[in-house]
C-alpha cells in the first residue's frame, strides 16, 4: 500500500469518529461519505445516509436550502458559513454551526461539497440558562428588598444595591471602592482577621454575625451573612446580605465584658442573686454595673435594659438562650 493511500485511510478513520459532524456530497446532492457525528444528527448510522440524496435525508424546505448552498459553493469556490437545525433523538430541537466548502476532483474542477459542523445545542442552552440566572440574581439583588453588598477579597466594596445604600444613608457611588472597615464600627473585633482570611482563602464557605454599620445618622446593628463566591473553583469575591436587627442610634454603647455578661443573664430572666453568684460579684458591685448600664443604655428598668441591649446589637436577636452578638462560623 502506498504511503499516500495509507495516510488517507488513517485520516478517514480519524474523521469517522471526530465529534465534529462532517460530510462529503457530489454535485448532484448525493452523500459520498459522512462520519458518525453527522449521521447522529439525523438519528441514523453512517450507512443509512451514504448513497442517499439530501431529499432523502432532510425535510423538503431544508433540502432546497442545501441544494442552493451547494450550487453557491461549487460556483464561487468560496466556503459558506451555515447553520443546521435538527431534532435530537428525544425530539428536542438542536443546532449545529459550521462551514461547507468546495472539494476539487482529479481534474481540478470543484465537483464535490464538504461540510464540517459542531453541535452547539448544549452551548446555547448553557448561555440561555446563564442569562436566566443573571436576570434572577439581578431581580433578587435589586427588587427583593434585601440589602446586598459585594466585597473584593481585599475587603473593598465592589457593589452595593439600593437597599444597602439606604441602610448606610449614602449613595452607592460614594460607598463603592471604600474599605469596608470605613463603614463598620469595631471591624477588627466584630469580624476577626482569622475568620475573614479563612473565608477569602476558601477554608470557609460562609460566616455571619451582628455588625454595627456607621450610617449617616449614627450606628445601625445588622446581621451580616457573608458567603464566598468562587469562579472556576477559585475564591473571587464575598457577598454580604445585611438584615437590620435593631434601631439606629446616635452612638454605640460601650460596655465592659462583665457588663455584657450581666446583660446576657438579665435577658435570660436570672435574678440579681444568681447573676452576682455566677459572676463572683458582691451585691454592691452588681448594683454599680446595673446603674452604669441604665445610664449607658438610657433604660429605667430591667426590661428596658434588655430591650435596649437587643436594639443596640449587643445581644444576638436570633439566638436563645441569650448570647452576645459575636461572629459565628459555618
TrEMBL record:
Domain of life (superkingdom): Bacteria
Q: Supply the Gene3D superfamilies for this chain.
A: PAS domain (3.30.450.20), Winged helix-like DNA-binding domain superfamily/Winged helix DNA-binding domain (1.10.10.10)
Q: Which residues form the PAS domain?
A: 7-77
Give all residue intervals belonging to the HTH luxR-type domain: 248-313
* Identification of the protein by name: Helix-turn-helix transcriptional regulator
User: What is the source species?
Assistant: Streptomyces hazeniae
